[in-house]
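ugh ok fine here u go
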Amino acid sequence: MAETEWKDIWQELESLKRENKYLRNLLDVTLDKVVEIERRIKRVEEKVNSGLELYYREYKGIGYAGKYNFEQIDESARELIKNLFYEAAKKISLPSFETWFTGTITDARLTEDLLIIYANNDFGRDWLETNYSDLIHEIVAKFLQREVQIQFVKDR
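structure:
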C-alpha cells in the first residue's frame, strides 16, 4: 500500500476512535441521566403516593365523620368526638376506623375530668379499650389540652 493509503486508513481509524469515545461518553452521560431521572421519578412517586394516602385518609375521615350522626352524641362531648373521629381516621386503616369508631361508638359524655365513651356492645367496648385506648387518650388530651380519664362502657 502506498503511504497516502496508510495515512487515509490511519486517519479513518483515529476518526472512528474519537467517534467511539464520544459516543461512549455520550452513552455514559445518558445512562447516568437515565438513572438520575429514574431516582427522581421514584422519589416523586413516593411523595405522590404518601400524599394520596394522606388525602384519602383525610377525605374519608371527613366523609365518614360527615355521615356519622353526631347529634346522637351528648352536646358536652360532640366537638371532641368529631375531632377524635377526624384524627383517628388519619392514623388507622379505613376498615378499622369504620368498624371501631363509626361502627361502634354510639354516644359520649364529657365532664371536667372524665370522658365516657359508649359502645354498641360489650365486644366493641372491650376492643376499643384494649386496642385504641392509647390513641384515643392521645387525641383527646391534644384536643382538650389536658388529661382526662376515659371510661369505655356498653351503651345503655
